[in-house]
Amino acid sequence: MADLLEQGATFLEDQRVKHMTRAVVYQRGVEAKEMLATVGKTEFEQADDAGLIHRTESRDFLIRTVDLDLGSGPTLPRAGDQVREAVGATVFLYEVNAPGGQPPFRYSDPYRKALRIHTKHIGTES
Questions:
Q1: Which phi-psi region, left, alpha or beta, contains residue 80 (left: φ > 0; alpha: ψ -120 to 50)?
Q2: pLDDT at 1 over 70
Q3: What's the pTM?
């Protein structure tokens, strides 16, 4: 019997990719690949030793899990990887990571069809 929820998730993922994405370049070392990503954000809260709460916002890139293939088969994001996002003539450079020992990505759906990759802005190129 077909899993209707998984079929629905597949349909919605296809619609996200068709209508809500832009081209970015994902890079690990010398390996790089252009792929389609939806831009999002995640807010992290972390308490310091004094009990103060610090809020950090990451720029997230949602990509299909199968698209993250840098030449040797599908892989998962790693801290230190980079994402380049062009906006007009400006290229924004982001590093994959998450604050406070959080993992640098999470699956965006229960069927692991999409990855939500957490990043921080590290530079701008003109």
A1: left
A2: no
A3: 0.89
